[in-house]
Amino acid sequence: MYMGPDSDSSKILDISIKYCEGMHAINSSIDLYDLSVALNGLHRSLALTTHYFCHREIITKAPFVRGINILSKPPTIGSFEVTASVWLTTGIIASLPAIYKVLTAPKDTVLGHIVWSLYDMVIHKTTGQFVDFDKSIYAQYIDKEEYETKRIESLAQKLESSVKNIHRPIMTRSALSSTLSTAGEPSIVFNSQTLDLTNRLTIESEAQMLIGRVAGYSANTKSGMIYSQKENRAIPFELEKGCDVNTKTLTRSLFLYDAVKGNRGSRAGFFKFNAKKVVNQAGTTKKYYITYAYGDSMEK
Length: 300
Fold this sequence. Notes:
The chain has helices at residues 22-25, 32-55, 90-95, 98-101, 110-126, 145-158, 160-166, 168-171, 192-199, 247-259; strands at 9-20, 68-72, 76-77, 80-89, 177-181, 188-190, 201-203, 208-218, 223-228, 233-239, 271-280, 285-294. It is of the alpha+beta class and 300 residues long. It folds into 2 domains: 9-199, no CATH class; 201-297, CATH 2.40.50. The strands form 2 sheets. Strands 1, 2, 3, 4, 5 and 6 form a 6-stranded antiparallel sheet that branches. Strands 8-9-10-12-11 form a 5-stranded mixed β-barrel. A hairpin with a 6-residue loop joins strand 5 and strand 6 (188-190). Helix 2 (32-55) runs antiparallel to helix 7 (160-166). It is globular. The relative contact order is 0.13.
């Protein structure tokens, strides 16, 4: 009997993506380029989420996933629908914590529902919608909730472009809406409103004083990543145009950070800065526009 990509793999989850109405989907068709962009977004978001679940590691490139295969079934008539199957190798399943392994069954696995629960949270985070972590199936199997919610937010940040790509047929009106679904779970709905949520950002008019440490910086683009003490995560930043920001403070912070990597208790490189926050409609910080850096506040 065929077991997927090879005889050493088991299917844990089927996810269907269906595009409805619009210029083409109403006739069970869809623009081929729009579809290719959307399926690329679906594959990457599924692959990176499943990789995080299996390996507790956030990556950015889908080809680097390990022990995971995502296969497509032929499209079905009725609007436009494609089903993707998530398969894990026996080695990956064996490496999971015991709480997961005892849940694995040949069909309709609870393991698959946990992965779906994580994926659902990531998608809602990406589109700026409220996520009740405590009520998710995934949360029942996590010990360090505060740490995990920060990691999920970081993963969602990496998947923003992929989720936007899933909206591609909606952007061009080839379809008006889309649903992601799996058996026994509420569907994830994409439409013009969720598209707006992926794009609609607000730049706060007033800068506020924050504390952080530079984790990456490009002098050419005057942008990078800064670990925010308040947010407890790395956030993209740009230097506000027209503001006199001493870039030596940024490079000094990055130098000190590189010197103490791996030492979680070190405060080296943290400094005070003023920045305007860029937030989505849910109030999640997506970027900082730094207006001033206090070089004399640098911790060593």
